[in-house]
């Protein structure tokens, strides 16, 4: 419960501030050019430091890293809520990202080393998977409610009670298994190369969204990221105590999970953005009503993760949950390509969101478990960090890539049709229709991305049904404390 609460806090913080951003921008006098840094400062620190945070959890102990991460995140949230100018706000968001990068992998690796019984592990990861998938939508609901009825500052202050309860519970209740720490010297070159490489990658996609893909700095960021990450891989292959042991990502099943999960997140984050704008700008929903409109998706995710995924995880191979799960989500996404200005929420959006939630919840649950199953305890922190990294990078790519596709389609539609609009009301109608045209064009790409994620899950992941244990592969030994339903390679 305490681990789930902490994970919810981290995940919803990626979206809760978005709805509060217009109010915060006005109060603090943040310019339109700088407002993106409220989101970007968090994303850069969080995405860039995840691998380092995972390694620190392995070195210090997951419980200690978890409690420290919670305390730091609460302090940074208090600073953000009390911000009096843009510099204070940007600094607070960056600090939230730093402590989030310590907290997120510590939470997942605690689950990995604590829950070793098959059924208990299924329940724990069912709850975790539901939160990982639906936390962003919860953030939209909570952000809308707090902004409309209280004040934007409460989107920060609300983290403090979450963090205090989770930290107190973790300190007194959680018992981390003895041993399993990785006390090897810290791989400093690996830390520097991975952090700079991931920061450059996330910033490149963030900048592409606002300045375009051909912008010289955008291109420079992508080139720098590629060079740094290649250098990181080469370094990790040579050093004695790597930050990210390559055995963690080259193992077939984990590699398949990281790749398919990252692709699914690309589709999901783009959708959150489009549906929020569609509901508020096109349909005229209030922030609170918009948030509640996402409830069916959250209900679907919880059902898919805790009922379907948890019940079937010990009976069928993970790929038979992940592949069909992504395809069901793709079907929900496909329904949204029929979206028009006057589309009915009950007839179109409601069933589409339910299918999306059910599919994603069913797929996320075994993905989260498989990503850390069979990994050596000393590597559980960095294996968990890789899950979060694939989500964070996927979110940055999804927002930038799909937003660019939507903007291009909107511009093209308006240019072709605005000439035939004589009155101002007709011109406004063309503008709205252009936006919807942009959203549906991008959603078609999201459908394709989810289908690719399903194909990867079905073909690359070959883990057997939990309980059908086989000897581990030669590059990896599985200690007794995590050797539970071991995956078949």
UniProtKB/TrEMBL annotation:
Transmembrane segments annotated in the record for this chain: 34-53, 65-83, 95-115, 127-146, 152-174, 186-205, 217-235, 256-279, 291-308, 320-339, 345-368, 442-461
Keywords, ordered alphabetically? Antibiotic resistance, Cell membrane, Membrane, Transmembrane, Transmembrane helix, Transport
Gene3D superfamilies membership: MFS general substrate transporter like domains, Multidrug resistance protein D
Q: Provide the protein name.
A: MFS transporter
The source organism is: Streptomyces prasinosporus
Q: Give every Major facilitator superfamily (MFS) profile domain span.
A: 1-465
Which N-terminal residues, if any, form the signal peptide? none
Q: Which InterPro entries match?
A: EmrB-like, MFS, MFS_dom, MFS_trans_sf, Sugar_transporter_CS
**Any matching Pfam family:** MFS_1
**Can you tell which superkingdom this protein's organism belongs to?**
Bacteria
């Amino acid at each position: 419960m305490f681990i789930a609460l902490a994970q919810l806090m981290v995940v919803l913080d990626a979206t809760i501030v978005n709805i509060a951003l217009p109010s915060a921008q006005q109060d603090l006098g943040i310019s339109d050019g700088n407002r993106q840094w409220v989101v970007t400062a968090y994303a850069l620190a969080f995405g860039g430091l995840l691998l380092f945070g995972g390694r620190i959890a392995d070195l210090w102990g997951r419980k200690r890293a978890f409690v420290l991460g919670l305390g730091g995140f609460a302090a940074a949230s208090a600073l953000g809520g009390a911000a009096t100018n843009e510099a204070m706000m940007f600094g607070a968001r960056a600090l939230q990202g730093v402590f989030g990068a310590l907290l997120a992998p510590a939470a997942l690796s605690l689950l990995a080393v604590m829950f070793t019984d098959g059924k208990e592990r299924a329940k724990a990861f069912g709850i975790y998977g539901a939160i990982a998938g639906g936390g962003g939508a919860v953030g939209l609901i909570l952000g809308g409610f707090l902004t409309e009825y209280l004040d934007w500052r409460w989107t920060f202050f609300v983290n403090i009670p979450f963090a205090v309860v989770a930290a107190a519970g973790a300190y007194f209740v959680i018992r981390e298994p003895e041993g399993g720490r990785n006390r090897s010297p810290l791989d400093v070159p690996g830390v520097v190369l991975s952090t700079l490489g991931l920061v450059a990658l996330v910033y490149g996609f963030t900048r592409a969204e606002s300045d375009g893909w051909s912008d010289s700095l955008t291109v420079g960021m992508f080139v720098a990221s590629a060079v740094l990450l290649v250098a990181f891989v080469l370094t990790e292959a040579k050093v004695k105590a790597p930050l990210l042991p390559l055995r963690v990502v080259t193992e077939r099943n984990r590699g398949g999970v990281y790749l398919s999960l990252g692709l699914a997140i690309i589709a999901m984050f783009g959708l959150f953005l489009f549906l929020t704008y569609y509901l508020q700008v096109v349909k005229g929903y209030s922030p609170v009503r918009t948030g509640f409109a996402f409830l069916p998706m959250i209900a679907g995710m919880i059902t898919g993760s805790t009922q379907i995924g948890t019940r079937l995880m010990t009976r069928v191979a993970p790929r038979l949950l992940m592949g069909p799960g992504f395809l069901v989500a793709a079907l929900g996404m496909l329904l949204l390509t029929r979206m028009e200005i006057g589309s009915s929420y009950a007839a179109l959006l409601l069933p589409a969101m339910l299918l999306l939630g059910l599919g994603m919840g069913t797929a996320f649950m075994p993905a989260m478990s498989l990503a850390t199953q069979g990994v050596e305890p000393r590597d559980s922190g960095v294996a968990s960090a890789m899950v979060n990294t694939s989500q964070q990078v996927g979110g940055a790519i999804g927002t930038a890539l799909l937003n660019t596709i939507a903007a291009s389609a909107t511009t093209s539609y308006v240019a072709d049709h605005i000439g035939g609009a004589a009155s101002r009301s007709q011109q406004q109608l063309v503008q709205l229709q252009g936006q919807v045209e942009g959203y549906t064009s991008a959603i078609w790409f999201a459908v394709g991305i989810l289908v690719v994620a399903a194909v990867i899950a079905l073909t690359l992941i070959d883990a057997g049904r939990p309980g059908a244990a086989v000897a581990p592969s030669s590059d990896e030994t599985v200690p007794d404390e995590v050797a539970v339903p071991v995956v078949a390679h």
